[in-house]
Automatic annotation (TrEMBL):
SS bond list: 158-168, 268-305
Molecular function as annotated in GO: chitinase activity
Keywords, sorted A to Z: Disulfide bond, Signal
Protein name stated in the entry: Chitinase-like protein 1
CDD domains: chitinase_GH19 (cd00325)
Keyword Cell cycle attributed: no
GO biological process: carbohydrate metabolic process; cell wall macromolecule catabolic process; chitin catabolic process
Region forming the signal peptide: 1-26
Claim: Repeat is one of the keywords in the record: no
Domain Glycoside hydrolase family 19 catalytic, chain residue ranges per copy: 69-295
Length: 323
């Protein structure tokens, strides 16, 4: 419980600071501190970008992505037929994002790229937590964040292959939970290490605390799971240079490749299958709702991963945080 108590205390402190900042009113009141470190400019921006970083010299996520925009993207999440009514909210997302903004999440480049990355990340979230397939009201793309957990899991997702590194806790079940649903003990263990919360012994935290659930999802977006592979963030913002083998495998710095590194052959290299097209549709829809416009997404070959070779084929050795 110590890890959870510490994480909860940090979240509550950040929430308090966020509330005070919002109550203060305007962006003009946000303190921006600047220094030169080894000849390079670094900044801090209050609670939201709270350690020295070049990324904190840019606008923060709350500057480019407002409450009403979050509400527009996830307009049906609190409808009576949704399965996580009252769980997900804008504040939880911003508090979670603050852990990663100094690392470049939503703070890389100018406003357009920042907004596009937020849209890209949330399009994965929306597609993976939607209950839109069985409803009509508002259209299927309006139902993101309908779930925060797998309904009626058929197994406990405990894999003894990782019994020494990430041993299953007695009585724990590692079914899908969170904003980018996590499955299996080894994935819970790795994500917990990444956000400094003991998810291996307490996987239920992901369906009890929306900030922790968003933190785990953003950690997955920002983190290289294998040293020789990029993170989804690096792919999307252009910080990754494809190798010759990547180019031959039709993998490039595109939205489509973010699906590849996150889901592999479950989504990519299978032609125009529904799981891939659903994520793409959410991304285009979110770009429109944010006022960016889907034309900013680029050509179809940048959106799709239909013909890409998977980073992690199912036949390859299993690694932590694979699906």
């Amino acid at each position: 419980m110590a890890d959870f108590s510490k994480a909860t205390a940090l979240i509550l402190m950040a929430a308090l600071l966020a509330n005070l900042a919002l109550m203060a009113g305007a962006d003009d009141d946000k303190e921006i501190r600047v220094r030169k470190h080894k000849g390079k400019k670094e900044c801090i921006q209050g609670w939201e970008c709270s350690w020295w970083s070049r990324y904190c010299c840019n606008q923060t996520i709350s500057d480019v992505f407002a409450v009403y925009q979050f509400e527009n993207l996830f307009s049906k999440r609190n409808s009576p037929i949704a399965h996580a009514v009252g769980f997900w909210d804008y504040r939880s997302f911003i508090l979670a994002a603050a852990m990663f903004e100094p690392l470049g999440f939503g703070t890389t480049g100018g406003k357009l790229l920042q907004m596009k990355e937020v849209a890209a990340f949330l399009s994965h979230v929306g597609a993976k937590t939607s209950c839109g397939d069985g409803v009509i009201t508002g259209g299927p793309l309006a139902w993101g964040l309908c779930f925060n957990r797998e309904m009626s899991p058929m197994q406990d997702y405990c894999d003894d292959f990782y019994k020494y590194l990430y041993p299953c806790a007695p009585g724990a079940s590692y079914y899908g939970r969170g904003a980018l649903p996590i499955y299996w003990n080894y994935n819970y263990g790795a994500a917990g290490e990444g956000i400094k919360v003991d998810l291996l012994h307490h996987p239920e935290y992901l369906e009890q605390n929306a900030t922790i659930a968003f933190q785990a999802a953003i950690w997955r977006w920002m983190t290289r799971i294998k040293k020789d592979q990029p993170s989804a963030h690096e792919i999307f913002v252009g910080d990754w240079k494809p190798t010759k083998n990547d180019t031959l495998a039709k993998r490039g710095p595109t939205f489509g490749t973010t699906m590849n590194v996150l889901y592999g052959e479950y989504t990519c290299g299978q032609g125009d299958i529904n799981p891939m097209n659903t994520i793409i549709s959410h991304y285009l829809y979110y770009l429109d709702l944010l006022g960016i416009g889907r034309e900013q997404a680029g050509p179809n070959e940048d959106l799709t991963c239909a013909e890409q070779e998977a980073f992690n084929p199912a036949s390859s050795p299993k690694t932590a945080t694979s699906s």
